[in-house]
Amino acid sequence: MSAMHEPLPLLQQALAAHQAGQLEVAQALYWQLLEMNPSDPDALHFLGLLTCQKGEAAEGIALMRRSIAGHASAIYYNNLGNALREHGELGQAIGSYRQAVALQADYPEAHNNLGNALREARQPREAMESCAQALALRPDYAQAHNNLGNALKDLGELEASAQAYRRALACLPGYADAHHNLGNVLVQLGQPDGAIEHYRCAAALNPASAAMHNSLGLALIASGKFELAVAALSRMIELQPLSAAGYSQLGDAYQGWGKLDAAVLCYQNACELDATLAEAHHQLAIVRLRQRRAEEALVSSRTALALNSNAAQFHLNHGDILSTIGDVDGALTHYRYALSLNDELELAHSRLIFDMACHVGARPEDRLADARRFGERMAARARPLPHVRPAHEAQQPEHVLRIGLVSGDLRQHPTGIFLESVLAHLDANRVTLVAYTTIVAEDDVTTRLKPYFAAWHSLVGMPDEQAAHRIYDDRIDILVDLSGHIVHNRLPLFAWRPAPVQVSWLGFFGTTGIQTMDYILGDPHVLPPDEEGHFSEKPWRLPDSYLCFTPPREDLPVGSSPLRENGYVTFGFFGKLAKITDEVVRVWSRILLASPSSRLFIKAQQLEAAEACRRTVARFAEYGVEAARLILEGGSPRVEYLAAYHRIDVALSPFPYPGGTTTAEGLWMGVPVLAMKGDRFLTHICESMLHTAGLADWIAVNHDDYIARALALTSPNGQSRLTAMRATLRAQLVQSPLCDAPRFARNLEDALHGMWQQYVADADADADTR
Predict the structure, then answer these.
(1) Is the dihedral of CA 317, 321, 584, 723 positive or negative?
(2) Whole-number Å distance between alpha carbons of 306 and 304
(3) What is the mean pLDDT of residues 257-285?
(4) Neighbour tally for 242: CB within 10 Å
(5) 280-381 maps to which CATH number?
(6) Class at the top of the CATH hierarchy for domain 567-739
(7) Where are the alpha helices (DSSP H) in 155-209?
(8) Tell me, what's the pLDDT at 238?
(9) CA distances (Å), 75 to each of 23, 53, 56, 323, in order?
(10) Does the pTM exceed 0.85?
(11) Is the peptide bond before 656 cis (omega within 30 degrees of 0)?
């Protein structure tokens, strides 16, 4: 504080008390001065400042105006501007600062404050000019450098903004706000590590600032450092224990860390503190779904939608919950609504396309239209990379192809299971493999797969354009998508065409819709000629199955038929509960009702929730099947899961979404699989495996045939057949092309070289026409 006149001893006492925080003493002294001279400008001014400090802004500002009326000082105008700004009178504050600099042009604090106020008034260019004037007067003015950085950030000049914050820190290294602001800009510049470093500095310099701990926590979440994020956000909660948003963000950190119970408690606290916080309800629904508590997830999701029905992500999550409980029609409705709100939401497109592939009544033309719509959106974002005509050596039949595999499932997953034995038999003189993984998680299968690759790269967190250029620079000849529209896919980067030839294989069971995806790799069973119109890609068929099963490493014997001990046939289904559609329940119920002694054993991870068990029993009860006829069991570790096949005599493959990996595993454990002939790639998967394993007679042509075949197995002859097959089925599977990895590897190599030769021929033809 500064007075305009030589202070009297009494004024000196008042100012000293004011600066020491003895507000009551200072106030009394200011009033004493005013009793002696009611128009004393210094007493009026500083009493006004003190009155504002005590929360009586209107009275304080009035006193400051009286002081200015008696003495128009630049300092008085600057201080009045500060008071007006804090009181929300931004326009008047700007006017007061302008008066200050008009009276004293070499007043850097007033220029800086004017710049700050102009930025708040959404005039960043004028703010920048005022801060620049302050710095011209005082080049080492840290606060002005900081405020200049704020203005530049508002103008979108992020690099210049970062430089301004760095200059502020060079002038004042312990400037917490500048560290915090620099962290914010570095986040926008895509430099998360730098942002975290500066957020840490800000929080250390100002440990009482909840906002700084919050920023640090959010940056750590974005970088996948969830345990550290929990620590930062927990400190923020300590400082603001009633912050609903803070609890919700802490829940996000726990969720990312995999501590789902802790996440639930945080989201529940957030909802109790603020029942209108839609995001907390939404995230609680996501965690409940991950915990396989779909009914509870549904309640939270409905609440979130009631609070914000225009959030595309909320409808996407709601669709996931409905899909999980088997309400595919409801799921499709919400996926489509999500896309109506945000057509750029990639995951909503993929969920829609996936569920349409599984939907009983979905028409081929509708499935293709949805996929093409996705492809068009991705194409609009991309700029396909150029590929020159293949060099002479690349046109030779013996050319070693560089094959890139893009997947998030190079681990204990159906993709990993069907790849492992094949990769071991690929000829290094014909193909070189490069992996591009889309998730961080790895396991024992990953460890076994890595040696088959010449290089292993992560695309996690890498934007599509950058990922495409990475693959392009690796000179990949054929890029293989192993995900399609399942989770962790990176289909959008294929729209950039990082490789001359691109093919989708193994992970999905339908078209991708990507215009630059050249081929879909299948076999004659999943890609019959009359269904080629289902795809935007060209079909390429392997001669046997498009799958090659890697037998389990676990040493498990087949075991004897349980019907010998039970005296009845136990049917079984091991897989996702959502595959048991209403149509499947009806057909399976007819089998059970026609064979009163039989049982149905359903094993699914979702059945770990009591509500899922209750709902499953109720669904069969609608058709007259008693609960005692059902054996319901949740998920279990792999060895226990495989051993569970000892408890069933025959597996029932559902429809239209049949068993894939579970079909092969069932056959491996000596359990035959009854399937239904389908009408699209997805529905043909089990058919393909049974044909390849020499079990084509286990494919029914319609519902009645399916039921008749199942019931025939409950007859004495049928039971004898099951008993006999139990002892021979594993050997039959192993000797079939479905487990012949060397044969499959040659077929795969031939297919890839065939695609490459077609590309070379097309490139030559294009060159000849130019």
Answers:
(1) positive
(2) 5
(3) 98
(4) 10
(5) 1.25.40.10
(6) alpha beta
(7) 158-171, 176-188, 192-205
(8) 97
(9) 21, 17, 21, 67
(10) no
(11) yes
